[in-house]
Amino acid sequence: MSNLSQKLKFDVASVILPVMNETYSLRQTVEIIENDCGNDVKEYLIIVCERTKPESLAVCEEIKSRLGEKVKIHFQKMPFIGGAIREAFDLATGSHTILMASDLETPPEVVKTMIALAKEQPERIVTASRWIKGGKFYGYDPLKKFLNFIFQRFFSLLYFVALTDMTYAYRIFPTKLVQSIRWEELKHPFLLETIIKPLRLGARVKEIPAVWKARTEGESQNTFIGNFVYFRIGFRVRFMSKSQILKPTSMV
Ligand SMILES: Nc1nc2c(ncn2[C@@H]2O[C@H](COP(=O)(O)OP(=O)(O)OP(=O)(O)O)[C@@H](O)[C@H]2O)c(=O)[nH]1
Ligand SMILES: [Mg+2]
Questions:
Q1: Which of 2, 13, 204, 207 has CA 20 to 30 A from 99's CA?
Q2: 105 CA distance to ligand 2 centroid (A)?
Q3: For 120-139, what is each residue's pLDDT tens digit?
Q4: Between 80-91 and 189-200, two packed helices, what is the crossing angle to 10 degrees?
Protein backbone atom coordinates (compact mmCIF):
# COMPACT_ATOMS: atom_id res chain seq x y z
CA MET A 1 0.00 0.00 0.00
CA SER A 2 2.93 2.37 0.41
CA ASN A 3 2.72 3.46 -3.22
CA LEU A 4 -0.91 4.39 -2.57
CA SER A 5 -0.25 6.41 0.53
CA GLN A 6 2.51 8.51 -1.04
CA LYS A 7 1.63 12.19 -0.85
CA LEU A 8 -1.29 12.65 -3.18
CA LYS A 9 -2.82 15.92 -4.29
CA PHE A 10 -6.07 16.66 -6.07
CA ASP A 11 -5.13 17.90 -9.49
CA VAL A 12 -8.04 17.20 -11.85
CA ALA A 13 -10.88 14.69 -12.04
CA SER A 14 -11.85 12.11 -14.65
CA VAL A 15 -15.63 11.59 -14.74
CA ILE A 16 -16.90 8.17 -15.83
CA LEU A 17 -20.26 8.12 -17.60
CA PRO A 18 -21.54 4.71 -18.74
CA VAL A 19 -24.32 5.12 -21.30
CA MET A 20 -27.00 2.70 -22.53
CA ASN A 21 -30.27 4.51 -23.18
CA GLU A 22 -29.85 8.02 -21.76
CA THR A 23 -30.28 11.16 -23.88
CA TYR A 24 -31.36 14.35 -22.06
CA SER A 25 -30.24 12.82 -18.74
CA LEU A 26 -26.68 12.47 -20.06
CA ARG A 27 -26.74 15.97 -21.58
CA GLN A 28 -27.98 17.46 -18.30
CA THR A 29 -25.41 15.52 -16.26
CA VAL A 30 -22.51 16.98 -18.25
CA GLU A 31 -24.04 20.49 -18.32
CA ILE A 32 -24.46 20.62 -14.54
CA ILE A 33 -20.93 19.39 -13.86
CA GLU A 34 -19.46 21.80 -16.41
CA ASN A 35 -21.33 24.75 -14.87
CA ASP A 36 -20.53 23.80 -11.28
CA CYS A 37 -16.91 22.74 -11.50
CA GLY A 38 -15.87 22.25 -15.14
CA ASN A 39 -12.40 23.66 -14.41
CA ASP A 40 -11.68 20.78 -12.06
CA VAL A 41 -12.69 18.16 -14.61
CA LYS A 42 -10.04 17.05 -17.06
CA GLU A 43 -12.10 14.54 -19.00
CA TYR A 44 -15.45 12.82 -19.39
CA LEU A 45 -14.96 9.14 -20.12
CA ILE A 46 -18.18 8.15 -21.84
CA ILE A 47 -18.42 4.37 -22.11
CA VAL A 48 -20.71 2.83 -24.71
CA CYS A 49 -21.33 -0.66 -26.08
CA GLU A 50 -23.16 -2.39 -28.91
CA ARG A 51 -26.39 -2.20 -26.90
CA THR A 52 -26.16 1.58 -26.46
CA LYS A 53 -29.15 3.16 -28.24
CA PRO A 54 -28.44 5.14 -31.44
CA GLU A 55 -30.14 8.24 -29.97
CA SER A 56 -27.82 8.02 -26.96
CA LEU A 57 -24.77 7.69 -29.22
CA ALA A 58 -25.97 10.82 -31.02
CA VAL A 59 -26.01 12.74 -27.71
CA CYS A 60 -22.50 11.47 -26.90
CA GLU A 61 -21.28 12.84 -30.25
CA GLU A 62 -23.13 16.10 -29.67
CA ILE A 63 -21.39 16.54 -26.29
CA LYS A 64 -18.06 15.69 -27.85
CA SER A 65 -18.54 18.25 -30.60
CA ARG A 66 -19.25 20.87 -27.91
CA LEU A 67 -16.47 20.03 -25.45
CA GLY A 68 -13.90 18.58 -27.87
CA GLU A 69 -10.88 16.76 -26.44
CA LYS A 70 -12.37 16.85 -22.95
CA VAL A 71 -14.77 14.10 -24.03
CA LYS A 72 -13.56 10.59 -24.78
CA ILE A 73 -16.06 8.12 -26.15
CA HIS A 74 -14.85 4.60 -25.48
CA PHE A 75 -16.43 1.48 -26.94
CA GLN A 76 -16.12 -1.17 -24.24
CA LYS A 77 -14.65 -4.61 -24.94
CA MET A 78 -15.59 -6.35 -21.70
CA PRO A 79 -19.35 -6.82 -21.13
CA PHE A 80 -21.84 -5.16 -18.76
CA ILE A 81 -21.54 -2.28 -16.33
CA GLY A 82 -18.52 -3.74 -14.53
CA GLY A 83 -16.69 -4.18 -17.83
CA ALA A 84 -17.55 -0.58 -18.80
CA ILE A 85 -16.23 0.90 -15.57
CA ARG A 86 -13.18 -1.31 -15.32
CA GLU A 87 -12.05 -0.14 -18.76
CA ALA A 88 -12.79 3.47 -17.78
CA PHE A 89 -10.66 3.10 -14.62
CA ASP A 90 -7.73 2.12 -16.80
CA LEU A 91 -8.28 5.05 -19.17
CA ALA A 92 -8.51 7.70 -16.44
CA THR A 93 -5.65 10.21 -16.39
CA GLY A 94 -6.89 12.63 -13.71
CA SER A 95 -5.56 12.44 -10.15
CA HIS A 96 -9.08 11.45 -9.09
CA THR A 97 -11.83 9.44 -10.74
CA ILE A 98 -15.56 9.94 -10.27
CA LEU A 99 -17.82 6.94 -10.64
CA MET A 100 -21.40 7.84 -11.47
CA ALA A 101 -24.27 7.10 -13.87
CA SER A 102 -25.71 9.12 -16.73
CA ASP A 103 -29.39 8.48 -15.85
CA LEU A 104 -29.56 11.29 -13.21
CA GLU A 105 -29.91 8.70 -10.39
CA THR A 106 -26.52 9.99 -9.23
CA PRO A 107 -27.45 13.71 -8.94
CA PRO A 108 -24.68 15.63 -10.73
CA GLU A 109 -25.00 18.58 -8.32
CA VAL A 110 -23.06 16.49 -5.78
CA VAL A 111 -19.92 16.32 -7.95
CA LYS A 112 -18.71 19.76 -6.84
CA THR A 113 -18.93 18.71 -3.18
CA MET A 114 -17.01 15.51 -3.89
CA ILE A 115 -14.27 17.49 -5.61
CA ALA A 116 -14.12 20.07 -2.80
CA LEU A 117 -13.67 17.27 -0.25
CA ALA A 118 -11.08 15.50 -2.43
CA LYS A 119 -9.10 18.74 -2.43
CA GLU A 120 -9.15 18.80 1.38
CA GLN A 121 -8.14 15.15 1.86
CA PRO A 122 -7.01 13.74 -1.47
CA GLU A 123 -6.22 10.21 -0.33
CA ARG A 124 -9.72 9.59 0.98
CA ILE A 125 -12.71 8.15 -0.92
CA VAL A 126 -15.84 10.30 -0.77
CA THR A 127 -19.02 8.35 -1.42
CA ALA A 128 -22.69 9.33 -1.65
CA SER A 129 -25.33 7.93 0.68
CA ARG A 130 -29.08 7.92 0.33
CA TRP A 131 -29.51 6.83 3.93
CA ILE A 132 -27.86 9.64 5.91
CA LYS A 133 -29.46 12.97 6.81
CA GLY A 134 -29.96 15.01 3.66
CA GLY A 135 -30.11 11.91 1.46
CA LYS A 136 -33.33 10.34 0.22
CA PHE A 137 -34.99 7.93 -2.21
CA TYR A 138 -37.72 9.14 -4.56
CA GLY A 139 -39.60 6.56 -6.59
CA TYR A 140 -37.62 3.54 -5.33
CA ASP A 141 -39.56 0.28 -5.24
CA PRO A 142 -40.61 -0.23 -1.55
CA LEU A 143 -39.53 -3.89 -1.46
CA LYS A 144 -36.15 -2.98 -3.00
CA LYS A 145 -35.78 -0.18 -0.46
CA PHE A 146 -36.46 -2.54 2.44
CA LEU A 147 -33.95 -5.08 1.08
CA ASN A 148 -31.47 -2.29 0.43
CA PHE A 149 -31.68 -1.29 4.10
CA ILE A 150 -31.05 -4.88 5.20
CA PHE A 151 -28.10 -5.21 2.74
CA GLN A 152 -26.55 -2.00 4.08
CA ARG A 153 -26.75 -3.15 7.70
CA PHE A 154 -25.40 -6.56 6.79
CA PHE A 155 -22.41 -5.29 4.82
CA SER A 156 -21.52 -2.57 7.31
CA LEU A 157 -21.45 -5.21 10.06
CA LEU A 158 -19.51 -7.68 7.91
CA TYR A 159 -16.87 -5.05 7.12
CA PHE A 160 -17.09 -3.44 10.54
CA VAL A 161 -17.57 0.08 9.13
CA ALA A 162 -20.07 2.82 9.88
CA LEU A 163 -21.00 3.28 6.21
CA THR A 164 -24.72 3.47 5.41
CA ASP A 165 -24.74 3.03 1.61
CA MET A 166 -22.16 0.67 0.16
CA THR A 167 -24.16 -0.28 -2.94
CA TYR A 168 -24.73 3.25 -4.30
CA ALA A 169 -21.97 3.60 -6.85
CA TYR A 170 -21.48 7.32 -6.68
CA ARG A 171 -17.98 8.06 -5.44
CA ILE A 172 -14.68 9.86 -6.02
CA PHE A 173 -11.49 7.82 -5.71
CA PRO A 174 -7.80 8.53 -6.04
CA THR A 175 -7.17 7.18 -9.57
CA LYS A 176 -4.04 5.34 -8.45
CA LEU A 177 -6.12 3.34 -6.01
CA VAL A 178 -8.64 2.04 -8.56
CA GLN A 179 -5.86 1.32 -11.02
CA SER A 180 -3.99 -0.78 -8.48
CA ILE A 181 -6.86 -3.18 -7.74
CA ARG A 182 -7.56 -6.49 -9.41
CA TRP A 183 -11.28 -6.21 -10.22
CA GLU A 184 -13.41 -9.30 -10.75
CA GLU A 185 -17.10 -8.63 -11.23
CA LEU A 186 -18.69 -7.67 -14.54
CA LYS A 187 -22.33 -7.10 -13.60
CA HIS A 188 -23.90 -4.87 -10.93
CA PRO A 189 -22.12 -6.55 -7.96
CA PHE A 190 -19.04 -4.76 -9.31
CA LEU A 191 -20.52 -1.61 -7.78
CA LEU A 192 -20.21 -3.12 -4.30
CA GLU A 193 -16.73 -4.40 -5.14
CA THR A 194 -15.63 -0.77 -5.75
CA ILE A 195 -16.01 -0.01 -2.06
CA ILE A 196 -15.20 -3.26 -0.28
CA LYS A 197 -11.82 -3.82 -1.94
CA PRO A 198 -10.57 -0.31 -1.05
CA LEU A 199 -11.88 -0.87 2.50
CA ARG A 200 -9.90 -4.11 2.78
CA LEU A 201 -6.82 -2.18 1.65
CA GLY A 202 -7.34 0.25 4.51
CA ALA A 203 -8.75 3.18 2.52
CA ARG A 204 -10.57 5.86 4.47
CA VAL A 205 -14.08 6.64 3.28
CA LYS A 206 -16.31 9.64 3.95
CA GLU A 207 -20.03 9.65 3.22
CA ILE A 208 -22.00 12.66 1.99
CA PRO A 209 -25.76 12.78 1.35
CA ALA A 210 -27.36 12.48 -2.07
CA VAL A 211 -30.97 12.38 -3.18
CA TRP A 212 -31.75 9.43 -5.45
CA LYS A 213 -34.60 10.02 -7.92
CA ALA A 214 -35.71 7.24 -10.24
CA ARG A 215 -34.67 7.75 -13.83
CA THR A 216 -37.24 9.38 -16.13
CA GLU A 217 -36.00 7.79 -19.37
CA GLY A 218 -34.74 4.35 -20.38
CA GLU A 219 -34.66 1.44 -17.97
CA SER A 220 -32.19 -0.04 -15.47
CA GLN A 221 -29.95 -2.92 -16.60
CA ASN A 222 -30.10 -4.49 -13.15
CA THR A 223 -32.50 -7.36 -12.41
CA PHE A 224 -34.25 -7.96 -9.11
CA ILE A 225 -32.58 -11.33 -8.66
CA GLY A 226 -29.26 -9.70 -9.53
CA ASN A 227 -29.41 -7.87 -6.19
CA PHE A 228 -28.78 -11.14 -4.34
CA VAL A 229 -25.60 -11.91 -6.25
CA TYR A 230 -23.97 -9.03 -4.34
CA PHE A 231 -23.49 -11.42 -1.42
CA ARG A 232 -21.00 -13.56 -3.37
CA ILE A 233 -18.41 -10.82 -3.81
CA GLY A 234 -19.38 -9.38 -0.41
CA PHE A 235 -18.28 -12.56 1.37
CA ARG A 236 -15.31 -13.37 -0.85
CA VAL A 237 -13.58 -10.03 -0.46
CA ARG A 238 -14.09 -9.99 3.31
CA PHE A 239 -11.58 -12.79 3.69
CA MET A 240 -9.12 -11.79 0.95
CA SER A 241 -5.59 -10.71 1.69
CA LYS A 242 -4.19 -7.45 0.36
CA SER A 243 -2.00 -9.34 -2.06
CA GLN A 244 -5.07 -11.06 -3.53
CA ILE A 245 -6.80 -7.70 -3.96
CA LEU A 246 -3.92 -5.81 -5.57
CA LYS A 247 -2.64 -6.33 -9.10
CA PRO A 248 0.76 -8.03 -8.96
CA THR A 249 2.50 -4.84 -10.17
CA SER A 250 0.95 -2.81 -7.34
CA MET A 251 2.29 -5.00 -4.56
CA VAL A 252 4.92 -3.68 -2.23
N1 LIG B 1 -21.62 1.29 -21.21
C2 LIG B 1 -22.47 0.62 -20.42
N3 LIG B 1 -23.26 1.30 -19.56
C4 LIG B 1 -24.10 0.60 -18.75
C5 LIG B 1 -24.18 -0.82 -18.79
N6 LIG B 1 -25.10 -1.22 -17.87
C7 LIG B 1 -25.57 -0.10 -17.29
N8 LIG B 1 -24.97 1.02 -17.81
C9 LIG B 1 -25.18 2.42 -17.42
O10 LIG B 1 -24.72 2.57 -16.09
C11 LIG B 1 -25.60 3.41 -15.33
C12 LIG B 1 -26.15 2.63 -14.11
O13 LIG B 1 -26.85 1.47 -14.56
P14 LIG B 1 -28.38 1.13 -14.28
O15 LIG B 1 -28.72 -0.01 -15.18
O16 LIG B 1 -29.24 2.34 -14.33
O17 LIG B 1 -28.36 0.51 -12.85
P18 LIG B 1 -28.45 1.12 -11.39
O19 LIG B 1 -29.19 2.42 -11.42
O20 LIG B 1 -27.07 1.12 -10.81
O21 LIG B 1 -29.25 -0.04 -10.66
P22 LIG B 1 -30.69 -0.11 -10.03
O23 LIG B 1 -30.79 0.97 -9.00
O24 LIG B 1 -30.74 -1.48 -9.45
O25 LIG B 1 -31.63 0.08 -11.16
C26 LIG B 1 -26.67 3.89 -16.30
O27 LIG B 1 -26.32 5.18 -16.76
C28 LIG B 1 -26.64 2.84 -17.41
O29 LIG B 1 -27.04 3.34 -18.65
C30 LIG B 1 -23.32 -1.52 -19.73
O31 LIG B 1 -23.33 -2.74 -19.84
N32 LIG B 1 -22.49 -0.75 -20.50
MG1 LIG C 1 -29.87 3.58 -12.76
A1: 2
A2: 6
A3: 999 999 999 999 999 999 99
A4: 50
Confidence of residue 1 (pLDDT cuts 50, 70, 90): very low
Q: Which is it for strands 71-75 and 136-138: parallel, antiparallel or unpaired?
A: unpaired
**b/e burial code for range 184-194 (CB count within 10 A of at least 16 → b):** bbbbbbbbbbb
Residues 6+ apart with CB under 8 A from 174: 4, 8, 95, 96, 97, 122, 123, 125
CA distance 245 to 78: 20
* Cβ atoms 10, 115 nearer than 8 A: yes
What residue owns the CA closest to ligand 1's atom 25? 220
In the three-class reduction of DSSP (H, G, I as helix; E, B as strand; rest coil), residue 125 is classed as strand
Angle at 50 between CA 46 and CA 56, to 5 degrees: 50
CATH number of the domain located at residue range(s) 11-242 in this protein: 3.90.550.10
Distance 251 CA to ligand 1 centre (A): 31
Each residue of 94-122: pLDDT tens digit? 999 999 999 999 999 999 999 999 999 99
Length of the chain: 252
Closest atom of ligand 1 relative to the 20 alpha carbon: 29
Strand partners of residue 18: 47
Contact present, 52 and 81 (Cβ < 8 Å)? no
In the chain, domain spans = 11-242
d(CA 123, CA 144): 33
**Which ligand 1 atom sits closest to the C-alpha of 215?**
16
Sequence-ordered strand ranges (E) for 130-190:
136-138, 171-174
